């Protein structure tokens, strides 16, 4: 499947200079959507995953489908103030300033085997922070999965030691 011809790149969104990788054109295409879910599920099917963790908000879509396919539960990581029960919070650096994400404290039990998912891997900062939360809860991170990887930003540098799987890589902007 040639996802590259299906994904939409929107220049200068949400601000000048960003080439936004818009996965909605994949999601609305039945064959492309099935390809994403089925391919990732095949890679992780024998890894005894019990939780898929998805990152707000586009990581929830394919993440939940993957959890269903793997016979696993789904856990959301969200922006601050969105999760209603007791949370663990992780702050992280952006290019300019800081951001934060949260996870429910009771969402993962120590020793659980976890697969992390987001739509786009860019600098890796968000996923690094997300992995920090899961590790703090005692989760064992089995793999990180993405639809798109912006390889030219060198995200794997921040995520060394993790097994990373992406369906589509961009080596140049
Ligand atoms: P990062 O922390 O730099 O790896 O950024 C990852 C988060 O920002 C993900 O949740 C992505 O959905 C979003 N993101 C970053 N860059 C892009 C991009 N060029 N196109 C679409 N989403 C992006």
Structural key phrases:
binds adenosine monophosphate, two-stranded antiparallel ribbon, about 25% helix, five-stranded parallel beta sheet, Rossmann fold, alpha/beta, about 170 residues
* Distinct ligand kinds: adenosine monophosphate
Main beta-sheet annotation: 5 strands, parallel
Give the oligomeric state: single chain
Whole-number mean pLDDT: 97
> What's the count of strands?
9
User: Rg to the nearest angstrom?
Assistant: 15 Å
Looking at the overall shape, the CATH architecture is: 3-Layer(aba) Sandwich
Contiguous runs where pLDDT drops below 50 for at least 5 residues: none
Task: Sum up the overall morphology in one term.
Answer: globular
Order of helices and strands, N to C? Answer: EEHHEHEEEEHEE
**In terms of structural class, how would the helical and strand content be classed?**
alpha/beta
Q: What percent strand?
A: 25-35%
**N- to C-terminal distance:** 21 Å
* CATH domain topology: Rossmann fold
Helicity level:
10-25%
Level-1 CATH class name: Alpha Beta
Give, in spatial order, the strands making up the sheet with the most strands.
Answer: 4-3-7-8-9
**Helix segment tally:** 4
Give the number of domains.
1
